[in-house]
Model the fold of this input.
Amino acid sequence: METLFLGLRVLVSLGAVLGLLWWLQRRFARTNGSAASQPEVRVISRQPITPKASVVVLETGGQRFLLGVTEGSVNVLHTADAPEPAPDTSAAPDAGFAASLKAAGADGISRDPYAPVPAGHTATTRRAGRGAHALPGVTPGKSPLNGSILSPDTWRQTGAVLRSRGRKG
Done:
């Protein structure tokens, strides 16, 4: 029975200490001021000059500061007014892109490379007359290794190209 009372007393004491810490944290966090009342400091860019020195552009309170930062000091090199923020254009789509997209799809041909070619249209690539393979006179194999470095056909094609270059030079 004594151990039960001792355990309850420890739990109540722990709860009181935690409650006091929570109350103190909330009280002192308010008196230090909120983040909205302090001006925001943004690093616009940083350019290292030497391993221990750099130039930094900061923006705060409508001002831009060019700072020289070294290991032992920070010096203000220049101060200027911050430029006005650019209007948000992300909400409105780019009219030029929309127009070019519309013009590209105006002929009714799908630009999807895997889509079938509609009847009456011919392929306009250099390889169109030769089929899907890259080298002339070689028919694609039915091997799952077709086109990979492990395929015997790939090695045969490579040898043929190297032999033909040897004769020309």
